[in-house]
Design goal:
The protein is an all-alpha fold. The protein has six helices and no strands.
Length: 104
C-alpha cells in the first residue's frame, strides 16, 4: 500500500463520511488498478452525499473499464441529474459527453 493511501485511510478513520477523502482514496485505488476498493469508496460517496458530483464521472468510467456498460449509463444519468440540480454545468457537460460516447 502506498503512502498516500495509508494517509487517506488514517484521515478517514477520523471522518469516515468525508466525500473529498473518499474520492481521493478511490482515485488512488484506480491508479493502483484496485477497481474493487475504488468502486467501494465511490459508492460510499453516493451514500454519504448524492450531490457530490465528481463521484459520478469517475465511477462511470470505472464501470466502463470493467465492462459494466448499463451500470455506467445509469451512473452518468444520475450524475447529470445531480449536476443539473447543483447548477454545475461544467460537470453536467462532462457527464453528458461520457454518456453520449457510451450510448451512441
Amino acid at each position: 500500500m502506498n503512502e498516500r493511501v495509508e494517509k487517506l485511510l488514517t484521515f478517514l478513520k477520523a471522518t469516515p463520511n468525508d466525500c473529498f477523502l473518499n474520492h481521493a482514496l478511490a482515485l488512488e485505488y484506480v491508479k493502483a488498478g484496485d477497481e474493487e476498493n475504488a468502486r467501494k469508496h465511490f459508492e460510499q460517496n453516493m451514500v454519504n452525499d448524492a450531490g457530490y458530483v465528481a463521484t459520478y464521472y469517475h465511477l462511470g468510467k470505472l464501470l466502463e473499464r470493467i465492462g459494466d456498460q448499463p451500470g455506467a449509463i445509469a451512473i452518468y444519468e444520475k450524475g447529470m441529474e445531480q449536476a443539473k440540480a447543483a447548477k454545475d454545468m461544467h460537470s453536467y457537460s462532462e457527464l453528458q459527453a461520457a454518456y453520449e460516447d457510451l450510448v451512441d
